[in-house]
Amino acid sequence: MTYQQLNAPVDIKQIKFRYSLAKWLTTGSMLAVVLMAFYSLFYPVLHGSKHRLHLVTDDNESPSSQPNSDRRNNNNSSSSCRFDGSTTMTFPSEGDSSYTPPSPDDTLWQALDYVSAKDYDQYCASWDPLQGFSDDLHLENQDCGNWQKTFSDLQEHRLQQLDKLKSGAFNGSLSNDEIPYFVSYVCEEDPRHRGSHGCGGLADRMSGMLSTFFYALMTNRGFLMNWQKSNPTSLESVFEQPNINWSFDPKEMKALYNTKTLGRHSVNTLNFNWERIRSAMFPQGPSQDFNELWTAPYVEVKSNRGYIIRTFSHSTRYSEQLENMGLTKTNSFRCILDYLLRPTSGARRFINAYKQLFQMESVLSIGLQIRTDDQAMAHPEDDTNNFETWDYFLNCANNLRDAKRQPHHQRVVYFLLTDSNKLREEFVAMNNNQTLRDRYIQDDATSMVVTGLPIEHIEAKTVKTKFDANITALDSDHARLLAGVNSAVIDNWLLSYTDYRLISRQGFGKMAAFHATDPRSTISLPRVDRKDRSVDCGNPNSFTTFDTLSTWWSLG
Ligand SMILES: *[C@@H]1O[C@H](CO)[C@@H](O)[C@H](O)[C@H]1NC(C)=O
Ligand SMILES: *[C@@H]1O[C@H](CO)[C@@H](O)[C@H](O)[C@H]1NC(C)=O
Ligand SMILES: *[C@@H]1O[C@H](CO)[C@@H](O)[C@H](O)[C@H]1NC(C)=O
Ligand SMILES: *[C@@H]1O[C@H](CO)[C@@H](O)[C@H](O)[C@H]1NC(C)=O
Ligand SMILES: *[C@@H]1O[C@H](CO)[C@@H](O)[C@H](O)[C@H]1NC(C)=O
Ligand SMILES: *[C@@H]1O[C@H](CO)[C@@H](O)[C@H](O)[C@H]1NC(C)=O
Which segments carry the region annotation Disordered (predicted)? Predict the structure, then answer.
């Protein structure tokens, strides 16, 4: 049984979506999703089999002007394939309640035309005419230490203890060995401040979840997590559980531990700043024992703040233990994330279609995450963003490209994530418009690539409820909602898989930076009103360290 199937579609349909949906989906993305749905309905009818993915089986295939097709005129390579500018691609549907991505954007196929023949063939080999792209992200051998099995066993043990407790096997007398110690992360709406004071967007939530897990790891507690279903969807509908089962019912858990013999404790560090996190996590200074912070058998945490990197920098108690586990300041976030959460199968296939391009030997890939303002998403008709304003991102990318390009990089790929449709359109136009290209890219071996997914509002927190343009209309359509949340996940994962990334100084890009394998591969750029203070991106000292990133916004 797959995890997706566990998410009863019936339940989901009954969810009352609230105002807080605005934190996740904005007018712009709703519109985009609707358009996409229509598109996928009509596209096959309108274009029929003309635009399919071609299997190159013989040479009589209609000639193509695509740069790679000349190079790849293998008479006899039946395994070779061709993706062209009008390729549509079906991802196998994983069941009613799960997310099925649209086809990748044309810009992906266009960039593929310029990679080396060897890389192209490997790309083809990973693609199956029936199954599409593999959903295996190949996360093994990622240099993540040796703690995983130990923790999975601990979790198993804690869950068994919990089952015993639930079944009433203990009636009042429990020895310390029998007590199921747990810590949980919960994300709920704050009923007093609808929409604005919840647990934040994807990045905020990731900070809270991963740090709470880190606490569990350091204190031998079992670990559970939950997103309130209506806020905006259950965690299980967005992520699979590759290693441990972290699903639980917060109400049931609360009730269970609400006894004299057991006991529970609530921790809330939502929106804490640097100083307050210090007093919450290290009240006794660097020698702080996390076990002494909260002693109740069940600790429930609400948080959108991180303290993992902080622990590496600050703690004297845990340095040896962490070193023995093989965890470091730069691998912890990534390793914990991959251990706990895996995007659903459809999302992984989509991710792989791009990830493989980004990581080709013949490709130098640079991600650009440009967060404009909420205005662009709320009122697309008033979106005036363009690269005249945002030129410093491209200048930085160009300088970085010129500094990092090696002879084996036949092609450079710029991959843009943004909340502005206008900006995305102009970016894509640079593939074909020589005027724009000369002005902003200044190189003929650079391709612009985007996902084409609905523009998701990337920093939920600030979007708040100001765009409550008919949220009720969405209530009945879980699929749309799921597509929005999955787009944010796909975008974030993809940004972590580029060779380098230029990020806006908010949480979203930072999470991708922490998730990247190379800690010296991210440059953060200032807000547009301070663009004159951008660093020189060709300078090897311009990379933003994890230490610096961990002092910003949701900390680290
Ligand atoms: C393709 O076939 C022709 C003759 O049929 C041959 O001359 C040529 O070398 C072949 N090319 C490849 C790549 O095998
Ligand atoms: C094509 O076929 C020839 C002879 O059958 C073989 O030597 C060659 O390796 C094949 N090339 C490819 C690309 O499969
Ligand atoms: C626990 O259960 C046992 C037998 O089931 C019973 O004899 C004992 O009185 C119970 N203790 C309490 C504290 O309920
Ligand atoms: C995970 O735990 C939840 C809650 O205990 C349970 O309902 C579910 O069946 C478990 N999932 C798996 C795959 O074991
Ligand atoms: C290229 O972009 C410029 C600037 O936006 C525009 O004026 C011009 O019409 C475009 N050219 C083509 C061929 O679309
Ligand atoms: C929102 O949509 C619902 C259902 O589609 C409709 O009944 C309602 O009148 C709409 N409200 C506004 C403010 O447009």
Answer: 57-86
* Token code pair at residue 353: 């279609």
Task: List CB contacts of 143: < 8 A, sequence separation 6 or more.
Answer: 326, 331
Asked whether the predicted pLDDT for residue 253 surpasses 50, the reply is yes
Are 279 and 411 members of one domain?
no
302 and 156 together in one domain: yes
Asked if residue 23 is part of any domain, the answer here is no
Least confident of 22-36, 427-441, 480-494, 535-549: 22-36
Give the pLDDT band of residue 471 (cuts 50, 70, 90).
Answer: low
Residue 100 lies in a domain: no
For residue 192, pLDDT over 70 is answered with: no
Q: What CA–CA distance (Å, rounded) separates 357 from 495?
A: 13
CB-neighbour burial class of residue 88 (10 A; exposed 0-12, middle 13-18, buried 19+): middle
Within this chain, do residues 294 and 334 fall inside the same structural domain, yes or no? Answer: yes
**Ligand index nearest the alpha carbon of residue 470:** 6
Mutation to probe ligand 3, out of 170, 171, 174, 259 (largest number of atoms < 8 A from CB): 171
The alpha carbon of 222 and the centre of ligand 4 are apart by a number of angstroms equal to 14
| Residue of minimum CA distance from atom 9 in ligand 3 | 171
Which protein residue has the closest C-alpha to ligand 2 atom 13?
77
Locate tokens 């945002």: which residue?
390
Task: List the domain range (segments joined by +) for residue 189.
Answer: 148-340
Residue 161 Cα, ligand 3 centroid: separation in angstroms? 19
Query: Are 394 and 474 members of one domain?
Result: yes
What tens digit of pLDDT does each residue of 80-111 get? 677 765 566 667 666 666 788 888 999 999 99
Cα atoms found within 13 Å of the Cα of residue 461, Cβ hemisphere only = 17
Q: How far apart are the first and last CA of the chain?
A: 35
**pTM of whole model > 0.85?**
no
Quickly tell me which residue has 């972590």 as its tokens: 496
In this structure, the answer to whether residues 316 and 373 fall within a common structural domain is: no
Same-domain pairing of 175 and 321? yes
Going from the Cα of 453 to the center of ligand 6, the distance in angstroms, rounded, reads 26
Residues 389, 330 share a domain = no
- Number of domains forming the structure of the chain: 2
Query: Rounded to the nearest whole angstrom, what is the distance from the C-alpha of residue 261 to the centroid of ligand 3?
Result: 15
> Which ligand 2 atom minimizes the distance to the CA of 75?
1
